[in-house]
Design goal:
- The protein is of the alpha/beta class.
- The chain folds into three domains: 303 residues, Rossmann fold, CATH 3.40.50.1100; 70 residues, Rossmann fold, CATH 3.40.50.1100; 78 residues, ACT domain (Alpha-Beta Plaits, 2-Layer Sandwich), CATH 3.30.70.
- The protein contains 17 helices and 20 strands.
- Strand 1 and strand 2 form a beta hairpin.
- Helix 3 packs across helix 8, helix 10 runs parallel beside helix 12 and helix 13 crosses helix 14.
- The radius of gyration is 24 Å and the shape is globular.
């Protein structure tokens, strides 16, 4: 059961999850959507929890139906012919019947993940806001859905040779678990330097891990070569109709849990999850709006949608949302997303940091950066989306060391962590005097650096770097104002 914080108006409604007993004052369970429920599938519970918004995120993108632009440059598509591991692209590549069949295939393999309700975000938006908690799914993300369906649908003679995949995270773990559940061997290629926790998790699910290249793209090439040499079936992370159909089962659960949903925010890399959810809503709730969200630093969909076909993104910057850092949309999902007019918006790194901090601090949810981009989009433009809103938290597989850095980045983005540099006269007591000003401003000093030999310093000067904890943007501004009034010239590092 997930934690619930007390809001300003008192404790929120009781938690309800798939494993929790129902409380009398819990949010009423939504009825199953006609034509969606399968026999024996319980209607999932919901979780009520409070969320606080801290800071203002920056939003980049058009949310009125048009497709957002991007600062990256794109190259022409080098191909256009689908590989043997891909299905034909286009709006009919995946149908509602395919998704319903995928749900039947998955059966009890997956968890019907719960919804978490956010009171403060709901109040800010003016309607209900929910989080679809795929970070609590088996193997830590939605990826097990598509991987299991793809492996299940392989012909027996292909499955007998085992499967191979390439990934640095969620897809690796999803394929490893799905293969083990089918009783077949799995080989997963990872780039050199993949996080140790993800390597260990993938191996713990039964896969053999190999390393190839410095990037996921190079690992993908090695996986395809392995498939050609051994006969193992290559399991693409997003560019296959079976994978898209499997991911689309998330939408069936959303419609059962929140049948009056008007907007669904979905993180998008190659597009498999977004295409699967779009397929279901196109048939069952065409009046609702599905919106894809990408990290602005690696956004391959906006220019591709503008061009009308997938393009390689040749100009990009590093992003913390590595799980959706894909250089080219998949042919199969792109066909669905393009032909249904599904919009894709982008969010910057600071807004992702704020979303991660919000989810961790107030909802007690560990979510990886790629899984939080939908929340980042909502925090950035709370009135751009019609409620009720569901933001899909697509995964929670985050390296603990990275999580530490993300928390610090999120605190800084929210104005609660500040690094300053300033120059002092090199005399006894000068540092203590400056620190006394910080103490008077009620700022907590975390770290101090003191340098006398830096280039550009005068003979009687020292440069001091100070890291502070503050209570938010207003308090940080007050600290700077006090230092300036005391005669210092601080710069924010």
């Amino acid at each position: 059961m997930m934690s619930t914080e007390a809001g300003a108006d008192g404790a929120g409604p009781a938690d309800r999850g798939p494993d929790a007993a129902e409380a009398a004052d819990a949010h009423p369970a939504a009825p199953a959507v006609p034509g969606v429920s399968t026999p024996g599938t319980p209607v999932p519970g919901t979780v009520m929890s409070d969320t606080a918004v801290s800071g203002t995120a920056v939003f980049s993108g058009t949310v009125g139906g048009a497709v957002d632009g991007t600062d990256g440059t794109v190259g022409t598509d080098s191909g256009g012919t689908a590989r043997p591991d891909q299905a034909a692209a286009g709006p009919a590549a995946v149908t509602l019947d395919d998704v319903l069949a995928a749900r039947k295939t998955l059966g009890e393999v997956i968890r019907s993940t719960q919804l978490a309700w956010s009171r403060p975000l709901s109040e800010q938006v003016g309607g209900e806001v929910w989080f679809k908690c795929e970070n609590l799914q088996r193997a830590g993300s939605f990826k097990i859905r598509g991987a299991y369906v793809r492996i299940h649908n392989l012909p027996d003679d292909e499955r007998a040779h085992g499967v191979v995949a390439a990934s640095a995270g969620n897809h690796a773990q999803g394929v490893a678990l799905a293969a083990t559940l089918h009783g077949i061997p799995a080989t997963v290629f990872m780039p050199d330097g993949a996080p140790l926790p993800k390597i260990a998790a993938t191996e713990s699910y039964g896969a053999k891990v190999r390393f190839a290249g410095a990037t996921v793209d190079q690992a993908l090439n090695a996986a395809r070569e392995f498939a050609d040499e051994t006969g193992a079936a290559f399991i693409h992370p997003f560019d296959h109709a079976d994978v898209v159909a499997g991911q689309g089962t998330v939408a069936l659960e959303i419609l059962e849990q929140c049948p009056d949903v008007r907007t669904v925010l979905v993180g998008c890399g190659g597009g498999g999850l977004l295409a699967g959810i779009t397929t279901v809503f196109r048939e069952l709730r065409p009046e609702a709006r599905v919106v894809g969200v990408q990290a602005a630093n690696v956004a391959s969909y906006p220019p591709s949608l503008s061009a009308g076909h997938p393009l390689w993104l040749t100009g990009s910057s590093p992003t913390m949302a590595d799980g959706i850092a894909v250089g080219r949309p998949g042919d199969v999902p792109f066909g669905i997303i393009h032909d249904t007019g599904t919009p894709v918006v982008t969010v910057d790194e600071e807004s992702i940091s704020r979303a991660l901090l919000l989810l961790l601090e107030r909802n007690k949810l560990v979510v990886e950066p790629a899984g939080a981009v939908g929340v980042a989009a909502l925090m950035s433009a709370p009135h751009a989306f019609e409620p009720p809103i569901v933001a899909v938290l697509s995964g929670g597989n985050v390296d603990p060391l990275l999580l530490l850095r993300l928390i610090r980045h999120g605190l800084a983005a929210a104005g609660r962590f500040m690094s300053l540099r300033l120059r002092l006269t090199d005399r006894p007591g000068a540092l203590a005097q400056m620190l006394s000003e910080l103490a008077a401003a009620d700022a907590n000093v975390v770290d101090v650096e003191h340098g006398r030999t830096l280039a550009g310093l005068g003979v009687t000067e020292v440069e001091v770097g100070v890291t502070l904890e503050t209570r938010g943007p207003d308090h940080a501004a007050a600290v700077l104002e006090r230092l300036s009034a005391a005669g210092y010239s601080p710069t924010v590092a």
